[in-house]
Amino acid sequence: MKTQIVTAVVDITQAGEYKHFEMRIPDNVKTIDGVETSVRFQSDYISTLNDNNTTNDNLTMIIGDMRLSGGKSNNWFYAETVSDYVALLPKNVFYHQQLKCSLPYTHHKRRDGNLCTVNPIGTRIKGYFKDSIGTNLQQDIHYSLTICIHLSTE
Amino acid sequence: MKQIIKKRYDLQITEAGAIKREQFELDKNVSKVNAILLSSDKEEQLYNRGSQKIEINGQEIFPEKYESKLLMSGLNVSPNDRFYKLENIAVGNRIMKVEFTDNNDARSSFSAYRVSVYLELETETN
After folding, report:
1. Contact A15/A141 with Cβ under 8 angstroms?
2. pLDDT in tens, B50-68
3. Which of A68, A113, A121, B58 is a plausible cystine mate for A36, CB 3.0–4.6 Å?
4. What angle do CA A105, B95, B12 make, to 5 degrees?
């Protein structure tokens, strides 16, 4: 049995945008083992959040909601509220606070992908993503969401 | 006798938006690749901007656009849990190919950085 990862990238440009996507998986997939998501921001507005950051911690925001379908016994087999860091505490402030805050890439706890054990129907995983961060900030935020699905194949 | 060792392979990223392709040869006595970890001398660059495709022995382990942050672990993680476990990877020709892409991200502007790929390897010694 081998493991494989397939990825899809969803581009969001408008507040409240609702986007459908589809991912092709090989026809020899036995199970879907897990899902990971990651966000990359293109919008300059996000960098202004860092400039104005006066909190004592990194700013995490809910980016949006994602659902996946294509499971054999449960068609809609995965749901996630995607969140990510939008403003990281500047490094000089980090040191002045004597390591009290935690930057995600130095002190974050172990990151585990969301596990699931699902037998897929067919060779397509469909899903949708609905933007929340743009709605909450009342701005059109341009970002891309990468969805990685971990598969076990024969 | 079997031993578990950790080896590091570096790539230098010197240009914004660059795609850097490198090939690394694993030692001849490596019998298994157990796990992988990514790190950098400028971790915020790797965290926000990096993605890579990694192949070992012609087998794709991580596809294009698989983001680097998903393979990074923080200091709060126990050293024994930091690595991402790989299973059923045949060492074969002992070649690891890395295709690293630097992507624009509003959270970090580009400055040259080093990407380090750490592998946990099993070796056979006589």
Report:
1. yes
2. 999 999 988 899 999 999 9
3. A113
4. 40
Mean pLDDT of successive 10-residue segments in chain A (154 residues)?
Answer: 88 95 92 89 74 56 91 82 74 49 56 74 92 90 92 86
Nearest alpha carbon to residue A104 among B84, B115, B70: B70
Residue A81 DSSP symbol: E
- Report the predicted TM-score, pTM, of the whole model to 2 decimal places: 0.81
Cα separation, A82 vs A68, in Å, equals 13
Interface of A with B (CB under 8 A): 1-7, 9, 36, 38, 40-47, 50, 85-88, 102-111, 113, 146, 148
Give every CB contact of residue A56 below 8 A, 6+ residues apart in sequence. A89, A97, A100, A101
Tell how far CA A22 is from the center of its chain.
Answer: 16
Amino acid at A91: K
Q: Which amino acid is at B83?
A: F
DSSP SS3 for B17:
coil
Q: Quick one: tokens of B35?
A: 């796990």
Kindly provide the ipTM of the predicted complex, given to two decimals.
Answer: 0.74
Radius of gyration of chain B (CA): 15
**A131: CB partners within 8 A, 6+ apart:** A12, A14, A15, A16, A17, A18, A63, A64, A141
User: What does R_g of chain A's alpha carbons equal in angstroms?
Assistant: 18
Query: Can you say how many angstroms the Cα of residue B99 is from the centroid of all Cα atoms in its chain?
Result: 10
Interface test with B, best of A21, A105, A108 (most B CBs within 10 A): A105
Q: Is B77 exposed, middle or buried (0-12, 13-18, 19+ CB in 10 A)?
A: middle
